[in-house]
Each structure stands twice: as C-alpha cells, then as structure tokens.
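HUMAN: Can I see a protein plus its fold?

ASSISTANT:
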Amino acid sequence: GKVHVLLDLAGIVPGIGVFPDLANAALYFIEGQGMNASLSLAAAVPVVGIGATAAKYSKVLSNGIEYSYKVTSKGIVFSGVKKFRSSLGLAVGDPRKAHHILPKGSQLVETGAVQAAASTGKFHIHMVENGIPLTAAQHGAGYNAAHVIYNNNFLNWLNNGIQYTNPQDAASKILSKIGDVRTQLESGKLLDEIIF
C-alpha cells in the first residue's frame, strides 16, 4: 500500500534511491508479488530504474481497454474516466447512468485497501468490472441522499469490513464485493438498499 508508494517515491532520488528500491523489492518478495519485486530490483539500477518504477504504475488492462494511473504523494491516482461510459456499452443518447460500483470519491479510493488493490495492477477504479449501467430510478439524480448512503456504506466496508493479508488478497476481495453489489443492482435494488 502506502509503504510501497513511499519507497517508490524515495527510490527515484539520485544517489540514495537504490536503498528504498531494494527494501521495496524485499517487501514485495515477502508478500509474494514477484513481478513488483522484479521491477523494484530493476528500479535499483541508476537511470534505468526510473523506467522500471514507471512501469509499475503506468497501466491496467481490463477487457482490452487500457487504463492509466500515476503515483503522487497521496498514493495512486486513477485516470481514464472519459472511457468509462463507452466501456460499459452506453451509446450517446442512452438515458442510463454509468455507475462506478466502488465509487470513485477520494475518501474511497484513498483507503488502504483500494490503494493496495491498485498496486497489484489487477484493479482500476474505472475498469469495466467496476461499472454498471443504472436507470435514473436506481441511481437517482446526481449525487443524492441515496448515493451518499451508498458511498458511506461502501467506505465503512473498506475501512472496517474488509480483511486482507496482502495487496493481491485486497484486489481479490474488492473485486468479489463489486460482484456481490453488481448482483444486487442487477436484481433491481436501489443504491441505498444495497447490503454490504
């Protein structure tokens, strides 16, 4: 999660960056994340290493659509929202809303669980698997009371309900929860009726 992001950021400092990169590689190895461990080892090589660090945070492929993100002092920041509606198959004029099942609000995406999941390359907030077309009746107009309740319930689950042992586990559990919520929404439930 944030430890890896901080080590990655420290790793780009000329002269001393090799030490955080090696520490990051060791942590990834302990966590069973071989690809990220290899990239952190490559990042320890002066000059070439910046490219390896960038590779860890550059893109996620979901159903053939590439999504990007970047690392900042706040952690992983997602981009690619312009593609979200079209990636869900919603044509121009379709009255349904393109809904993020795990909402894209900063309080939610900055949680440790979401940041950990994103660090694996298996989760992106704008990926197709995190989207569902909803009718106006299900979604409501704009950011309404039902949406506030829904976001707060999801945030509560991210902060208190999810138990994960490593970033891969976080990604798996978040994707599973997204699937559970999708099933409830497809059955016709409104946002504030979703059970977490």
Q: What stands out?
A: The chain has a mean pLDDT of 82.
